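Format notes (please read before filing issues)

Several people have asked whether sequences and structure tokens are stored in separate files. They are not. Every record keeps both together, in the order shown below: the sequence lines, then the token lines. Line labels are part of the format and must not be stripped during preprocessing.
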Amino acid sequence: MEPGEGNCTIVIEFILLGLSDAPELRVLLFMVFLLIYGVTFFGNLGMIALIQVSPRLHTPMYFFLSHLSLVDYCYSTNIVPKMLVNIINEDKAISFLGCMVQFYLFSAYGIIEVFLLAVMAYDRFVAICSPLLYMVIMSQKLRMVLVSSCYVCGTVFSLIHLCLALEIPTYRSNVINHFFCDLPPLLSLACSDVTVNELMVYILATFIEVIAIVIILTSYLFILITILRMSSAEGRRKAFSTCASHLTAIVVFHGTILFTYCRPSSGNSVDADKVAAVFYTVVIPMLNPLIYSLRNKDVKEALKGVVNSKMFSWRIFQSGGWWRAESVGCSGGVERTA
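Then the structure lines:
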């Protein structure tokens, strides 16, 4: 830290205290979070690969799901590797630039995911309420516009927070009581007036949540009305099954966000914030591919088809290799006889 005015300093690096300073918990925390990150890594990249190689998953719903998996993978990768390094290292420093980049990417991916879940709710609304026009309405052009809008919103809204954060000249301390660079802990260390920063956090977070929740609730209200009007019990069951995975992801993600930002402050709020942050930065990116694979018949059938086709190809390859070996042996024997 470089000296500034009074008790404030110009920060060139921050210290992340992490989840716990108890040495006996280091190995346990490292192994748990490494396991979770491994599931997140292979689960989300596996989901993307499965959607790409399986023709039955080339539908608008799985197009959006592949982007959700990509965002979850990036979201977790932005946080967890650095957290794992800090758990086993005594040096928990992160440069000022690295901290700003981590905060920006965390904010961007979070906002993108909020809007993606809203877009996926609209996709389910079209699929169930207008099934005959589904592929016409959810054209490739509209899908690209919707997904691009999610990425643009995440980039722009996060850039606003980043620009305001970079305007903070000095800090009272460079020690952040968190396991990654989040905006509220940073603002609590600022020497200058951060009223504008806090106001923008409140305004943008409220705006984003209200827009997303209105889209989701409106979509599922019409979906519920359509399902209740169905005369076939099988049709209702299939419709509910189609929406179950998406609804589960929405409840888990938005429930955690609402718990974090809409509960009263208390003396244990820092620890509660850390636990909630672990949930939506580490656990939820792992849960989403599991939710969509374990509760989704199409994904399970596609995975079974890919596995069977690979096993079949491997058997053909082995069979072909054995046949070629036999052919070479037989032809050699014929030549020797001749």
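For reference, the curators noted about this record: The longest strand covers residues 13-16. The radius of gyration is 26 Å.
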